[in-house]
Design brief:
Number of helices: 3
Mean pLDDT: 83
Strand content: 5-15%
Order of helices and strands: HEHHE
Radius of gyration: 11 Å
Number of strands: 2
Low-confidence stretches: none
Bound molecules: iron/sulfur cluster
Helix content: 10-25%
Structural class: alpha+beta
Largest sheet: 2 strands, antiparallel
Strand order of the largest sheet: 1-2
């Protein structure tokens, strides 16, 4: 778990991005997030890394595969 946290911490090069063209704004990702991040409305498609604990629940829940793990832009 510690290693995963290091990989996905706010200083990591990795982050979660929402493809706004694929997202159908169903809101499931926002509902499932344990730290109440409004994933569905992430600005410019990027999830705020400071609050995100990178549990990846939102990625697993997304039925359109609109959420991706990628290098931070
Ligand atoms: S679960 Fe996926 S499709 Fe639904 S709002 Fe979130 S990113 Fe968009
Ligand atoms: S990875 Fe977890 S904490 Fe981060 S936005 Fe998705 S559900 Fe929320």
């Amino acid at each position: 778990m510690g290693a995963l946290n290091a990989i996905f911490s706010s200083k990591s090069l990795l982050g979660i991005y929402r493809d706004v063209g694929t997202c159908d704004t169903c809101g499931l990702c926002s509902k499932i997030c344990p730290v109440q991040i409004d994933v569905e409305k992430a600005k410019l498609g990027r999830i705020d890394g400071k609050e995100c604990i990178m549990c990846l629940e939102c990625v697993a829940a997304c039925h359109t595969s609109a959420l991706k793990i990628s290098l931070k832009r």
